[in-house]
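Section 3.1: Structural characterization of target chains.
Under the original work plan, the team committed to producing a structural model for every single-chain target entering the pipeline before any wet-lab resources were allocated. The record below documents one such target. The sequence was received from the expression subgroup and is listed exactly as submitted; it comprises 287 residues.
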Amino acid sequence: MNLTKILGVVAITFICITSAFAQKKQLNVGEEFPVAGQGSNQTIVSQNGQYALSKDYSAGNDGRFYTHLVSNPNQKIVEFGAPHYSNTRLKINNGWLNMVGINPKTNSEPNSVLFIYSNGNGQNTNGGGVKLIVENDGSLSLYSAAGAKVWSKTSPNVKQEIGRNTLKAGETLKAGERLISSNGAYILRMQEDDGHLCVYKFENGKQGNFVWGTGEHGFKNASLIMQADGNLVVYDGSNVAKWSSKTHPYFDPKFNQAENKPVKLVLENDGSLKLYIASGSVIWTNK
């Protein structure tokens, strides 16, 4: 192999390595974002690939961070930080999201901590957070090792997904809320105006074509509950059941057996809805 080819291979390898470092899916304990020496194009990207967290390198804003549409970085969703600090990075410390940087007044980094984002529990308590992710709506969330959300920051104009693509036993999807498939291609909406529970395609951050619905509508303040008894039920504002998956012993005696009781609803990547039992098997689907 001649020198030109060798240099070409080295260059391609370097580009691949740089790209891999430039884009992350989450920030973990022990890591910093952005990483020193890896350029200004570093991002943390949402699971659906539509949103990203970036650092603002514009003049006077070196201390700020923001999430934005990947397709349009100027469309910001969440902004935070201290604009006059320099060399700012994000890290997880004591279970909370911290921003560290150099104070312009002292030209130093005292205690390496500028902000601790918490839910009011104070700086002396461990928040339990171990990973920061960009959600599929552009909001930021800090999760514990068990998968519980311990902190989040969102735009007032952003609807929060509930449990991402999953509704677990005891959880409720309220009117106006939605689940989103892990690939970001489908949403399950509990519609505010008519109580209809529907699946839609989700394209470029917008609701697309209708895929499936319960067929029951014409009421307000509806909610979808993944009941502890295994039945998935839509209730109207007066707590009257309007639709269910019929995964209850009343409808089928097999649900008397604990091993057949659904424990979670999942919006799958093909737009289908599935109820899973504790063993991980599917017990019900809408298709």
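The two ends are 56 Å apart (CA to CA).
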